[in-house]
Amino acid sequence: QVQLVESGGGLVQAGGSLRLSCAASGRTYSGYAMGWFRQAPGKEREFVGTISWSDGKTLYRDSVEGRFTISRDNAKNTNYLQMNSLKPEDTAVYYCAADSGMGRSRWPRIRPVDYDYWGQGTQVTVSS
Question: Could you give the CA distance from residue 3 to residue 118 in angstroms, rounded to a whole number?
């Protein structure tokens, strides 16, 4: 079993930056990918980005491409979501997700059902 703990959320003005962290604990993470999703009030959870745990390749939703960057530190079982040029529409609860590594490897993983473990979420609020 893997537990995911996010940190780094908060309140920031439009144009500002935040970095979210997602630490996996319980055992050494050996899945295929970690992802980030977000959910704003009254809206469905949406894909933000994902990173391949083996080679670090990434994929982002169009609206954050060029502003958000996901990186990983395999030794620390941690991935990071660097968010720059934040906009009010980025306001949401951000969730980290990880797959179990069971089954076939596939890329990319952009649906919530592609992931087996979830963090508790961290609030990001961008003021205008």
Answer: 8
In contact, 97 and 117? CB cutoff 8 Å: yes
The residue type found at 15 is G
* Assigned token pair, 74: 């395999």
Q: What is the pLDDT of residue 103?
A: 78
β-pair partners for 23 = 5, 78
Q: Give me the phi and psi of 44, to 5 degrees please.
A: -80, 155
Cβ neighbour number for residue 84 with a 10 Å cutoff? 14
Q: Is 113 helix (H, G, I), strand (E, B) or coil?
A: helix
pLDDT digits (tens, 9 = 90+) for 31-71: 899 999 999 999 999 999 999 999 999 999 999 999 999 99
The pLDDT confidence band at residue 29, using thresholds 50, 70 and 90, is confident
Alpha helices in 11-115 (DSSP H): none
- Work out the burial of residue 100: count CB atoms within 10 Å of its CB; fewer than 13 is exposed, 13-18 middle, 19 or more buried: middle
The neighbour count for residue 22, using CB atoms within 10 Å, is 26
